[in-house]
Each structure stands twice: as C-alpha cells, then as structure tokens.
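Dear H.,

Thanks for agreeing to be a second pair of eyes. The structure we're designing against is below in token form, covering all 213 positions.
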C-alpha cells in the first residue's frame, strides 16, 4: 500500500457493465472536481450530467455524422480508415450509463485587457494567451473527477475526441450559460470485469529535465 495508490488506481475505462451510478456518488466526484486549482480561482467550469438514453443516442449520432464527414475529406483511403478506427473511442459515453459534459468559460485575463487597450500586436497577445489557462483549469478539474471515480470503484474516461461535434452536441443538450462552451466529455459507469491495462509511460528520463545550476 503506497501513499500514491489513489493515483495508480486510475486508468481510462472504456467498457462498462449495466447499472447506474447513484446521483450522490456523482455529486461526490463533482465536488472533488471543483476542489481542483483554477487560474485566479475563477472556477471557470460547469458540468452537465446526462443520464438520458435518448439524448446520449442523439449525441452519439452527431459525433458519428461529424466523424464520417471528416473521414470523407481524408486525403487517401489509408487516412480515412485510420480515422474511422478511432470512432469507437469517441463514443465511450454511449457504452457508459452517464456522460458528464464539461463546459468552460475562457480565462478572464487582465494582462490581455491591458495590452489590448494599448493596441499591442495580436501576435503578442496570442503568445500571452497560449498557455490556455482556462483549458488547463478544466484539465485539473477533470483529473480530480477521474481520481475520485476510480477510488470510488467506478470507471471513467476523459474525452475530447467527440468535441469535433461540439456545436451539434451543445444544441442537443440545450444547456446555455453565457460565455461557456463544451470542452470535454467524461464517460462514467461501472467498469467491465476485464479492461485493458493502462498503457506504458515514457521513461522519466525522457520527459523530465532538472536544472540545478
Ligand atoms: C485531454 C484528453 C483527451 C482525451 N480524449 C480521449 C478520447 O476522446 N477518447 C478516448 O477513448 N480517450 C481519450 N483520452 C484518454 C487517453 O487516451 C488516455 O488517458 C491515455 O491513452 C493514457 O491512458 P490512461 O488514461 O489509461 O492512463 C483523453 C485524455 C486526455 C487527457
């Protein structure tokens, strides 16, 4: 038993068993999500929990249609087949009992306002905005959600793939909050008995640099 077991327990779960996740458990995961750090504590997230099969089917149809459209534009058959192969990975929410749709509002950045008021070049503003703080806040919240789900015995998967049908899904959901748009979908359910192993990581030497002097 290691102090980091709660981290090692998580992996993406894409196959689920029948059965609902009780609302009180979903609320616990959402509470964990909102304990994440966010830029200037703006908490620029909103979570829409979809447990309605009809809406989920419409979302899946929209993702499939958008996917097929993009595939039809592929430069050759190999590229088309490669893209079509990932479609099931964009539809995990259809196999789970619950889809948590994560909306975000752009980070309200004071430095951008100051620079804009002074007519600074857009290229400079683009560099300042490039860390995409709003999106990073959502990532932190989703990870908290995933850790909570795994440690409560549920299976979940973070997905941005289906966001290519973001406009259509937003219309299907009908959720509106000024300034907010769809960033990700979390599929959530009871994990299947057998699920693939977590993929291997790159060795730390490849992804870590210490600067000591
Ligand atoms: C921003 C983001 C987007 C992702 N989008 C998808 C997705 O659309 N579909 C999917 O099946 N997995 C998606 N994943 C899950 C990754 O494929 C997964 O985290 C990675 O393969 C490592 O596996 P693990 O989560 O089991 O450690 C996404 C993960 C992140 C962080």
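And this is the sequence the design step returned. I haven't edited it by hand at all.
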């Amino acid at each position: 038993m290691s102090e980091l077991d709660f981290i090692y327990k998580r992996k993406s779960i894409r196959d689920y068993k029948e059965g609902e996740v009780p609302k009180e458990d979903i609320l616990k995961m959402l509470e964990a999500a909102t304990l994440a750090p966010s830029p200037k504590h703006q908490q620029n997230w909103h979570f829409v929990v979809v447990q309605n099969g009809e809406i989920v089917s419409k979302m899946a149809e929209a993702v499939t249609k958008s996917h097929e459209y993009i595939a039809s534009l592929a430069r050759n058959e190999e590229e088309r087949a490669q893209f079509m192969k990932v479609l099931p990975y964009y539809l995990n929410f259809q196999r789970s009992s619950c889809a948590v749709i994560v909306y975000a509002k752009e980070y309200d950045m004071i430095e951008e306002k100051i620079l804009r008021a002074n007519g600074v070049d857009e290229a400079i503003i683009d560099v300042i905005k490039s860390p995409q703080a709003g999106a990073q806040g959502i990532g932190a919240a989703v990870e908290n959600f995933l850790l909570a789900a795994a440690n409560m015995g549920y299976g979940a998967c973070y997905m941005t793939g289906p966001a290519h049908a973001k406009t259509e899904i937003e219309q299907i959901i009908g959720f509106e909050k000024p300034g907010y748009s769809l960033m990700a979908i979390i599929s959530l359910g009871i994990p299947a008995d057998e699920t693939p192993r977590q993929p291997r990581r790159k060795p730390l030497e490849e992804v870590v640099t210490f600067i000591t002097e």
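Two observations from my side: The mean pLDDT is 97. The longest strand covers residues 180-191.

Warmly,
E.
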